[in-house]
Design a protein that fits this description.
Blueprint lengths: L1 H6 L2 H18 L1 H4 L31 H37 L1 H15 L3 H12 L4 H9 L4 H14 L3 H8 L4 H9 L4 H24 L11 H7 L3 H6 L1 H29 L6
Helix pairs in contact: 2-4, 2-14, 4-5, 4-7, 4-8, 4-11, 5-8, 9-10, 11-12, 11-14, 12-14
Length: 277
């Protein structure tokens, strides 16, 4: 079974535990620290780590440990929700294109080609700049509704292949409805590649938020995210003399993305035992 094969992958299991720990710490941030992740204090700016402020404070006097904890909420939320949005759009459009083919396939693929002509992050920057995004949910929607073409093409390819299988042809001959064929035969047999790509997509979304924050188009301060905490530390003096400011958010971004990728590798091996590294 796929579950048993996954459970034998030690690296993937360790990654699941670490990712769960990061998630729980972000959700339980109010229980871990009583410091505010938003309240400024001009009398306590750029303080080094101490018993009161475990990772010091930033240039506005906000506790960095609290911001790192609460920042995980934004990044994990973006990764999770955008993955759901992207997968939903990709499965619907790709499924329709792969099953019906013909003009439906042509229209969907031309839309995908149009979306692929614009670099992903550049397209998001343009949209965010036009709509002057300051709400994290608007950013999530913009990212989700601009990142579906890759999944759409994947689903289309899978459905085109599976559609020619004997059991699908038998279901069509027996008079099974389109939706029954899709949900009982096509989608379940595409589940492995879709789950693996969902994990990789989530990792990419978290990395994209960090990249957008660095250029000023990610989650807007004072709302904390690992990306904007890291972006606020990108000056020569901070990088040289205050590693406690930028190392934790950078490490959390890297560790989270690595864990998600290792989980994706474990799922790939679990769903496809014939895969050889």
């Amino acid at each position: 079974m796929a579950f048993e094969r996954f459970m034998h992958n030690k690296l993937a299991l360790i990654s699941v535990i670490i990712l769960l720990l990061i998630t729980v710490m972000s959700i339980a941030a109010p229980l871990i620290t009583h410091q505010s992740a938003w309240q400024t204090s001009l009398m306590q700016t750029d303080l080094p780590p101490s018993s009161t402020h475990l990772l010091g404070t930033d240039s506005e006097g906000i506790d960095l440990f609290a911001r790192d904890l609460y920042g995980g909420r934004a990044d994990l939320l973006i990764g999770f929700v955008d993955t759901i949005i992207t997968m939903a759009i990709g499965i619907v459009l790709g499924g329709l294109a792969g099953y019906y083919s013909g003009w439906v396939d042509a229209v969907v693929m031309r839309i995908c080609d149009f979306m692929f002509n614009f670099p992903f992050i550049l397209l998001i920057i343009v949209i965010v700049a036009i709509f002057n995004v300051s709400n994290i949910w608007i950013l999530i929607l913009v990212m989700g509704f601009t990142s579906w073409p890759g999944i759409t093409r994947l689903v289309r390819g899978l459905f085109l292949t599976i559609r020619e299988s004997e059991y699908v042809l038998a279901a069509q001959i027996s008079g099974a409805s389109v939706w029954r064929i899709i949900f009982k035969h096509l989608l379940p047999n595409s589940l492995g590649p879709l789950v693996v790509n969902a994990t990789l997509l989530m990792a990419g979304m978290i990395g994209a938020e960090a990249a957008l924050a660095v250029v000023g188009f990610g989650v807007k301060p004072p709302s904390p995210s690992w990306g904007n905490i890291l972006a606020g530390a990108l000056n020569f003096l901070t990088l040289q003399t205050e590693p406690w400011v930028w190392v934790p958010p950078a490490a959390l971004i890297t560790l989270t993305i690595l864990c998600i990728n290792f989980i994706g590798d474990g799922l790939r091996d679990a769903f496809d035992p014939s895969f050889e590294k």
